[in-house]
Specification:
Chain A is mainly α. Helices cover 73% and strands 0% of the residues of chain A. Classes of the chains: A mainly alpha, B mainly alpha. Chains A and B meet through helix 1, helix 2, helix 3 and helix 4 of A and helix 1 of B.
Amino acid sequence: MRAERRGDAVAYQRLLKEIAEMLRRLVRYRLAQLGLNAHETEDVVQEVLIGLHTKRHTWDEARPFLPWLHAITHYKLIDAVRQMKRETRHRIDLTFDEFAEMFEAPAEDLDRATLDVDRHLAGLPEGQQVVVRALAVEGASVKATADKLKTSEGAIRVTFHRALQRLMALAEPGGPKSGKGRE
Amino acid sequence: MMPSIETDSLIQNLSREAGPRRGLGGIRFGRLFAVTVALSLAAAFGMILFWIGVRPHLGQLVLETPFLFKIACTLSLAAAGIVLVHRAAVPGGIPPTLLALVPSGLLLVIGGLTDTSGLSIMGRNSGVSAPYCIGAILLASMPALVLVLGVLRTAAPTRPGLAGAITGLLAGALGATAYTIACVNDGRMFVAIWYPVAILIVACAGAAIGKRVLAW
């Protein structure tokens, strides 16, 4: 980092590479811990690198480098996680619509649709199956479902979102039980 | 995981920019911050002088308890604000702590509770009411709020909301410091209640603004 101040691009590049290597491990571990998609790791690593680069003048040569680096990494990581969570929520909202379409459209082809649904739902744990069936297949309201299952509306929503997330994961190419079926 | 080609080329691009920074980022934060605080205080005094003017007989009152109490409270709050802003600006340093506010807090509480002046808490019988006092402090702290937030953007606050709140605290304290020369209310209880309220309002505004403008 001192070399960077003198304009030594080679040393700076070496430092950034080492940091990137370390970040990659750290970020992947953290994302997995939080149940987020580890595919985003590289994006987050790049975010941190850019952040540290644009703020590199705030490191004081008289102070240790690692705490500074850690603070910046931490900040950028939290930022990225927050954003990813927001996007995930957004994505799930979209799938809700897709789900509705999916179940409404093939009215004349009911058998096949039901079959499809059953096949997809089979990948879910029992509790989630019940909720998805009630909400998305039977079209019951959240409140009615909550009353029926004797639990809170919040719990139903959470279960439903988890179920959707799981369904998406299952439907992703390369995921377990994936077929050529629609996503 | 394999190092990605994209990241490698990013690193290459970034490393090409190695070398000292030009512009505001190249100046050490401490120096920039000191100049900003001085400018903010001057601006606050300027605004108070322009809109309200010095209170009558300030020269004789400067060494009397009520004025000394006010200026001690506001200056100790400003000092705490300066320390805290500096801490909030530097990543990986000592984190800001509420302890910095203990001296001024004690001063305010003790001063307020030992108030025997009998002046109204709302300030009705002393010519100036509480809303007026708050309004004046708010106005006088605006230059400081804007300037210090501006300098903080060149630093790297890792908690933007908190850094903004602390900036508001400092700005409010600076505004209140300037207002002491105009404030005609000598009740310590009045000061101990309404000065902090005004400063707190600026701190809340600072937190809300900081959350947006200090994120990077």
